[in-house]
């Protein structure tokens, strides 16, 4: 008995010593300006709600894969589109289908890769703690292999596989497709600065992800990124102006924001100040600084402002970068973006009675999820740099306020909403059962040919669960109709999955961010 008491005493002493050491480390890190987010419990502790949701969300990338599948974990999926790109003499079989269709749209797919990379760069340790980093890397690698093949020479980029009008007329499983799948490319005579620059951003961001683990691949990605940026900048034009028939699908409002976005990522990837000067020099007008915007696959300005604010937050005091007035304007605009997101700010944007930031009726969850990701990132930039107050028209807000907003949007989509439904398929007890998704809606042993519309029109739940799909989301009154033909609310997109994966990764744990992405 005495031995037992002595053991317990020693255990208590060791625990107290460990706590003391932890407190000392935290104090030193805070004193040195590294900052630690104030949270209950052990630093870096995993929030299992968000970790479980992240594990679900990342599965949708497996659902969306094209090509010869490797280690396939989705029993109702198989090899598909193996001849994509063959007519052009290149292999475009990999990549991911865009949504509930079988199109490969390069513009949103590249954005998906950029966002996956950003999430891994900022929150890779949190992903690893949740045992999900490998899943994120698998998805990223599958897309990057496609994008590399899509850029066979300096001034050529293949931006699409499939005919969207023909594709959307068919309702069939991807494994059974027999229709022609034409490819579309941009060249100096047929420009597409927006998609080329977004692909350059994806290459640059991914090069940073792979730099510590595969320097050769990282260098190759960066080389592609720099050449694509030069192509995008030299031969300016929007791809939906070049191919107006594509404006009905992913219409790009301007290419200018993608040029700034790509330059910002290339600056982080190379350290070359010419890329920073590109964004802060004569091209700064592209950013419309002073006017906060929402972040999306089409508008990268808010993302660029947050990404360049990272430079300001962690710049050495007195350095040229710290004293750059234009860079300061980027940060001021990023501050304004954060202010419209905070519900208690005087400039707060509209949200539903259930608390969802509401910007657009179609795919209504895109903007709140993208905004919540930026808010979580900005909160961590503030806390990690020791700059812990955000001023909104004289009101003071903390990193915790931004994080609480991010959590509120995540909680809403996970089921804390008036409909009591999780908009992340496969998470929780109740989620959409009739997702607008061809592969999920047709039994795996059925060959419908192009005309499988009876599976679109049936009132029965999908026979296959599109696990991880983040559907479009609710209407302005928080209502949601779970019907397969309700494309506005019930179709999932691959880029939405990248956004929600980033948000959930940011919320998995609380810890300081690295001062540099490189």
TrEMBL record:
One of its GO terms (biological process) is cellulose catabolic process. The keyword Glycosyltransferase does not apply. Keywords: Carbohydrate metabolism, Cellulose degradation, Glycosidase, Hydrolase, Polysaccharide degradation, Signal. The active site is at residue 436. InterPro entries: 6-hairpin_glycosidase_sf, 6hp_glycosidase-like_sf, Glyco_hydro_9, Glyco_hydro_9_His_AS. Transmembrane segments: none annotated. Its EC number is 3.2.1.4. GO terms for molecular function: cellulase activity. It holds the Pfam family Glyco_hydro_9. Residues 50-504 form the Glycoside hydrolase family domain. Residues 1-23 form the signal peptide. It catalyses: Endohydrolysis of (1->4)-beta-D-glucosidic linkages in cellulose, lichenin and cereal beta-D-glucans. It is an enzyme of class 3 (hydrolase). Belongs to the glycosyl hydrolase 9 (cellulase E) family. This is Endoglucanase.
């Amino acid at each position: 008995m005495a031995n037992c008491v002595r053991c317990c005493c020693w255990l208590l002493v060791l625990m107290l010593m460990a706590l003391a050491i932890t407190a000392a480390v935290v104090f030193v890190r805070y004193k040195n300006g590294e900052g630690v987010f104030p949270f209950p419990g052990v630093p870096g502790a995993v929030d299992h709600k968000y970790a479980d949701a992240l594990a679900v969300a990342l599965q949708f990338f497996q659902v969306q894969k094209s090509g010869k599948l490797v280690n396939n974990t989705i029993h109702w999926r198989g090899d598909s589109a193996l001849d994509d790109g063959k007519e052009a003499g290149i292999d475009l079989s990999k990549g991911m289908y865009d949504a509930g269709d079988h199109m490969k749209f390069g513009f949103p797919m590249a954005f998906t890769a950029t966002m996956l990379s950003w999430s891994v760069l900022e929150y890779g340790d949190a992903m690893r703690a949740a045992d999900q980093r490998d899943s994120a890397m698998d998805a990223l690698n599958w897309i990057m292999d496609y994008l590399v093949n899509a850029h066979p020479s300096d001034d050529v980029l293949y931006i699409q596989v499939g005919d969207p009008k023909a594709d959307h007329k068919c309702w069939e499983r991807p494994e059974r497709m027999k229709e022609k799948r034409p490819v579309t490319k941009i060249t100096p005579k047929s420009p597409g600065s927006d998609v080329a620059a977004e692909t350059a951003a994806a290459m640059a961001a991914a090069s940073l992800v792979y730099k510590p683990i595969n320097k050769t691949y990282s260098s190759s990605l960066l080389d592609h990124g720099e050449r694509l940026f030069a192509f995008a900048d030299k031969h300016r034009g929007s791809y939906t102006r070049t191919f107006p028939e594509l404006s009905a699908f992913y219409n790009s409002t301007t290419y200018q924001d993608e040029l700034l976005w790509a330059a910002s990522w290339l600056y982080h990837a190379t350290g070359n100040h010419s890329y920073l000067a590109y964004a802060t020099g004569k091209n700064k007008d592209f950013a419309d600084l002073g006017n906060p915007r929402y972040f999306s696959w089409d508008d990268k300005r808010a993302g660029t402002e947050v990404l360049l604010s990272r430079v300001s937050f962690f710049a050495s005091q007195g350095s040229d970068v710290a004293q750059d007035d234009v860079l300061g304007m980027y940060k001021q605009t990023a501050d304004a973006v954060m202010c419209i997101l905070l519900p208690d700010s005087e400039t707060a944007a509209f949200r539903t009675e259930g608390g969802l930031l509401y910007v657009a009726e179609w795919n209504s969850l895109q903007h709140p999820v993208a905004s919540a990701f930026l808010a979580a990132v900005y909160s961590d930039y503030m806390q990690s740099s020791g700059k812990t107050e955000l001023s909104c028209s004289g009101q003071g807000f903390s990193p915790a306020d931004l994080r609480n907003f991010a959590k509120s949007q995540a909680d809403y989509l996970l089921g804390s909403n008036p409909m009591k439904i999780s908009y992340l398929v496969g998470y929780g007890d109740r989620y959409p059962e009739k997702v607008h998704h061809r592969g999920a809606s047709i039994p795996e042993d059925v060959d419908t040919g192009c005309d499988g519309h009876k599976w679109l029109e049936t009132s029965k739940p999908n026979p296959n669960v599109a696990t991880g799909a983040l559907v479009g989301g609710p209407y302005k009154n928080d209502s949601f109709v779970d019907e397969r033909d309700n494309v506005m609310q019930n179709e999932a997109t691959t880029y939405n999955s990248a956004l929600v994966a980033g948000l959930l990764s940011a919320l998995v744990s609380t810890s300081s961010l690295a001062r540099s992405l490189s």
